[in-house]
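Researcher: Here's a chain I'd like modeled. Treat it as a single chain, no partners, no ligands.
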Amino acid sequence: MINEATLAESIRRLRQGERATLAQAMTLVESRHPRHQALSTQLLDAIMPYCGNALRLGVTGTPGAGKSTFLEAFGMLLIREGLKVAVIAVDPSSPVTGGSILGDKTRMNDLARAETAFIRPVPSSGHLGGASQRARELMLLCEAAGYDVVIVETVGVGQSETEVARMLDCFISLQIAGGGDDLQGIKKGLMEVADLIVINKDDGDNHTNVAIARHMYESALHILRRKYDEWQPRVLTCSALEKRGIDEIWHAIIEFKTALTASGRLQQVRQQQSVEWLRKQTEEEVLNHLFANEDFDRYYRQTLLAVKNNTLSPRTGLRQLSEFIQTQYFD
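Model: Modeled as a single isolated chain. C-alpha cells:
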C-alpha cells in the first residue's frame, strides 16, 4: 500500500507504467479513510502534469449487448496497433458490501493477460448513472501511467449515458437488434450524447434485423441537433464475437478525435468537464459537511417528517432549511 514514506517512489513507478503500482494508486484513491484521501490528493496533484494525453472513451449499452466481448475484441485491436489500453469497468455494487458484483475482468481473458493492458473493475457504489465517483480520477492515474486509450465501461442502465459522457472524449452506445430494444434505445437523451452508435451481434441470421435497426437509428440521428458542429454521429455495425467491423469503429473514433482536435473543441470540452466535475464535487462535499452537523441533520429530519405528513409544504420546508443554514453558517 502506498504511504507517506513511499509516495515519491510510487509516483516514479507509476510513471514507468508499473501495473502493480497503478492498482495500489487506484485503491488509495478509492479509499474513504481520511488519511488515505489526504495522501491521494497529494498523489493526484503530483501526476497532473503527466495527464491529458490519452484518448478517453466510454462504452455503454443495454444489458446483453455484449459489452465485454466487444471490449475484448476492440482492446486487442488497439494492442495490435501498438497502443496501451486501460479499461475501467464500472459494475453494479453489492448492496451489502458496496463492492463490484460482475467482475468484468473475468470476461475479458485475452485482454486481461496482455502486458500492455490494464483492467480495473470498479463498484458504482450507488452513484447516479452507474459511474463511480472516482472514475475520473482513475482515468487520470491511467494517463499518468502512460496508457494511450482509457475506456470506461458502464452498466448501461438509467441515466448512465449522460453521466459518463460528461467525463469522456468520445461516447459509444452499444446496441443490439431484434431484441425488442430497438425503439427503447432511441431516446432523446441517448441520441444527444452518443458520438457513435454501434449495433453489435451482426452475425448468424441477424443481418436483416441489424440493417433495420441501423436505418432506425440513422433516421433518428438526422432529426436531432448535432452535439458538435464538427461531427455527425454515425451508426456502425459489428460482430464482436466474429471480430468483424471492429477496425471500422476504430477508424471512426480517430476521425472524431481529429475533427474535434483540429477545431480546438476537444480542449474546450475537457476544460468544461473539469469545471463541471469540480462544481459537482463541491456540492457533494458541502452536503456532506451539512449532514455531519448534528443540529442540521436533526432539523432536516424534523422538516422531512413534517413534509411527509403534509403539515408543511415542500417549498416552506426548503425555505426553513435555507434560513437555518444562513443562520448557522453565514450570519
